[in-house]
Specification:
48% strand, 4-stranded antiparallel beta sheet, mainly beta, 7-stranded mixed beta sheet, 126 residues
Length: 126
């Protein structure tokens, strides 16, 4: 059974950093595409960063390029999202998601992913 558990969210001031983790259990991450998504109140779920199965070049939404970094640690079966220079508009619930053998080409949209974590809240405010 695929299970994903996010952690690392919290409250931070603008300019601060957080590292989100997504621990996978019940399966091995390697053949899966992985993605981080976020949803702010009243807004649609947005793809923040995705990596295709096979670890091609990561995709980042324009608003986080140069500030966020996605990475997977196959030995720990964990996915990370390092978030630096956080802005108030980064506030939302962040979800990780996976889909086996999914090949992504400059694409990071939530309908492509079938397995999701429960989400972790990130609040950026002064």
């Amino acid at each position: 059974q695929v299970q994903l558990v996010e952690s690392g969210g919290g409250s931070v001031q603008p300019g601060g950093s957080l590292r989100l983790s997504c621990a996978a259990s019940g399966f091995t991450l390697y053949p899966y595409a992985i993605g981080w998504f976020r949803q702010a109140p009243g807004k649609e779920r947005e793809g923040v960063s995705c990596i295709s199965a096979g670890d091609s070049t990561p995709y980042y939404v324009d608003s986080v390029k140069g500030r966020f970094t996605i990475a997977r640690d196959n030995a720990k079966n964990t996915v990370y999202l390092q978030m630096n220079s956080l802005k108030p508009e980064d506030t939302g619930v962040y979800y990780c998601a996976v889909e086996r053998d999914l090949i992504l080409i400059r694409r990071c949209v939530w309908p492509d992913f079938g397995s999701w974590g429960q989400g972790t809240q990130v609040t950026v405010s002064s």
